[in-house]
Amino acid sequence: MKILIFGDVVGRPGRVAVLERVQDLREQHEVDLVLLNAENVAGGFGVTPPIADGLLRAGVDVMTSGNHIFDKQEVIPYIAAQPRLLRPANYPPDTPGKGVWIGEARGGVRVAVVNLIGRVFMGAADDPFRAADAALRSIPEDVRVRVVDMHAEATSEKSAMGWYLDGRVSAVVGTHTHVQTADERVLPGGTAYLTDVGMTGSYDGVIGMDAQDVIARFTSVTMRRAGHSSGDVRICAALVEVDDGTGRARSISRLSLPHES
Ligand code: FE2
């Protein structure tokens, strides 16, 4: 089976690009499952219920997230009732929502998606490695296709997670930096790995946000929240081919596509 994974989708430019292209990409690459990190879809910060519903209707199957998941408070009741929107599994146990989704891909193959968040240069969270072990224990043995979104800043922490889970999951992909890395490979145990899938959104700014706003934040103390930029929209994603029977990855490739509405 084939799994298409969008990294951080930022603001309206990123969202519109996904809405306009996801069906084409599904057909073109014969995709069975579409994942997307939704933590930045609402203006760059958080996700709202109508936006999440729109992405699910458009052909996204499961959304992961990270440190911005609760920026829009209206997501709290939504995530508690919507299993296709995940938050990091290593958040405190009573956090609304879940960090693992188990369900069926389009072709009927059962799959699991796990969302983790890193701790290096990030906010406080429980140990993602032990949380990964617990998440895997919660997945039935016959669910062989397992994908992990490791939302983290540090390359080393993401790479360590790839090796830690090698042979136990089909793929470990990183998100959060918004910059696609060129280190895709299948590790010896059969786990596809990519340090960061990269951003879908506007590249005419600083990781999706208005350059002048971000410069102002670095050069002054009067904090203001940056707006998203809007030009030079690109779609970044990873395409992973997995053997349904064993759950081992056959290949992983990167997509980086210009998008014009
Ligand atoms: Fe993030």
Short description:
With 261 residues, this protein is an alpha/beta fold.
Structural write-up:
The model has no long low-confidence stretch (mean pLDDT 97). Helix content is 25%, strand content 26%. It is globular, with a radius of gyration of 17 Å. The chain has a single domain, classed as Metallo-dependent phosphatases (Purple Acid Phosphatase, chain A, domain 2, 4-Layer Sandwich), CATH 3.60.21.10. It has 261 residues and is α/β, with parallel strands linked by helices. Helix 1 packs parallel to helix 2. Strands 1, 2, 3, 10, 11 and 12 form a six-stranded mixed sheet that branches. Strands 4-5-6-7-9-8 form a six-stranded mixed sheet, covered by helices on one side. The site of fe (ii) ion has 6 residues, from loops.
List keywords for this structure.
six-stranded mixed beta sheet, globular, alpha/beta, 261 residues, Purple Acid Phosphatase, chain A, domain 2, single chain, binds fe (ii) ion
Count of the domains:
1
Structural class: alpha/beta
Overall morphology: globular
Relevant CATH superfamily:
Metallo-dependent phosphatases
Task: Determine and state the CATH class.
Answer: Alpha Beta
Cα radius of gyration in angstroms: 17 Å
CATH topology: Purple Acid Phosphatase, chain A, domain 2
Strand content: 25-35%
Indicate the mean pLDDT: 97
Number of helices: 6
The end-to-end span amounts to 29 Å
- H/E topology pattern: EHEHEHEEHEHEEEEHEE
Let me know the largest β-sheet: 6 strands, mixed
Q: Please tell me the CATH architecture by its name.
A: 4-Layer Sandwich
Provide the helix percentage: 10-25%
* Ligands present: fe (ii) ion
Number of strands: 12
Which stretches are poorly predicted, pLDDT < 50 over at least 5 residues? Answer: none
